[in-house]
Amino acid sequence: MDWANFFSRQYAQARVTQVGSDGQQIGIAVRVQNDGSRNYYALYMDSGNLFFGKVVNGTWTPFQLFTPPLAGDVLKLVADGNQISAYKNGAPLSTFTDNSFPSGSPGLSAYGSVATNTIDDWEGGDLSTKVAVGTDNFNRANANPVGGNWQTITGLSNMQILSNQLTGQASLSSGAIYNSGTFSADQYSQATLNAINNTSGVLVRTSSTSETGYLFYQDQDIKLIIG
Questions:
Q1: 38 and 109 in a common domain
Q2: Structural domain includes residue 225
Q3: What pLDDT does residue 227 have?
Q4: Which residue range is the domain that position 70 belongs to?
Q5: Beta strand spans in 37-194 (E)
Q6: How far apart are CA 104 and CA 90, in angstroms?
Q7: 3 state DSSP class of 157
Q8: How far is residue 73's CA from residue 93's CA, in Å, rounded to a whole number?
Q9: Residue 3 domain-assigned (yes or no)
Q10: Residues 68 and 80 in one domain
Q11: Domain boundary pick from 126, 146, 181
């Protein structure tokens, strides 16, 4: 895990595989400080119960106690600003406001060596918020090239508007980038497929001067392909 590259808006989750009652603790954590201070927020199982709270310099401070989870339950812990939230199977359990740890990384928390409380399928990451830098519904007169804020990718043919929809050129490779606004490396692209009779899709991290980038497209055989 790279401790340096997580945003403060983050989550951790895992699936419960076994629930014991012997005091062995295991759970998920967010905003873990990797500096030896033992500071983090946690949602963990202990003696058949489910605890939600924080650890400050190694000392546990509870927020709330919940009924025991069952094997198969998915536990999730979310840190968003000063809102720390616990979930079970996608349903919210509780949210607390706390400013103790503004940053850190998703992780795991455990105490004891008897594996009667166990979890699996852990994941953690940034909470991605989609902020549209550019949008286009193509509801305008037929155009070739598209025009507006679109720029044809060097070496490819023009994208064009026909009947208020976007399409390429027959039997040619076409492509365009949106050249208005500033895009970070964390980005997305999405569109609605209105017809399935050619090869078309969306790109991210694309260069205007070469055929480079990541592509998710539908081809003429009605398959979805990523590459």
A1: yes
A2: yes
A3: 39
A4: 10-126
A5: 40-46, 49-56, 59-66, 74-80, 83-88, 91-97, 105-111, 118-126, 150-152, 160-162, 165-167, 176-178
A6: 23
A7: strand
A8: 13
A9: no
A10: yes
A11: 126
What gap in Å lies between CA 79 and CA 8, rounded to an integer? 7
Pairing mode of beta strands 165-167, 160-162: antiparallel
Calpha distance 168→162 (Å, rounded): 10
Neighbouring residues of 201: CB distance < 8 A, sequence distance ≥ 6: 215, 216, 217, 218, 225
Q: Could you read off the pLDDT of 83-138 as tens digits, one per residue?
A: 999 999 999 999 999 999 998 888 888 877 656 778 888 888 887 655 566 777 77
Q: Is 1 domain-assigned?
A: no
Q: How far apart are CA 138 and CA 122, in angstroms?
A: 42
Check residue 52 and give its pLDDT. Answer: 93
Same domain, 24 and 109: yes
Asked whether residue 136 falls in the same domain as residue 53, the answer is no
pLDDT (0 to 100) of residue 140:
86
Residue among 123, 87, 112, 122 nearest 17 (CA): 122
Residue with tokens 């000063």: 82
> What is the reported pLDDT for 79?
93
Domain boundary residue, one of 126, 154, 185: 126
Q: What is the layout of strands, in order, in the sheet containing 49-56?
A: 59-66, 49-56, 40-46, 25-32, 105-111
Residues 100 and 207 placed together within one structural domain of the fold: no
Regions of the chain where pLDDT drops below 70: 1-6, 113-115, 128-133, 169-172, 174, 179-186, 193-203, 206-227
Question: Please, which contacts does 169-175 make with residues 24 or more away whose CB atoms are closer than 8 Å?
Answer: 173/211, 175/203, 175/206, 175/211
Longest dimension (CA), the chain: 71
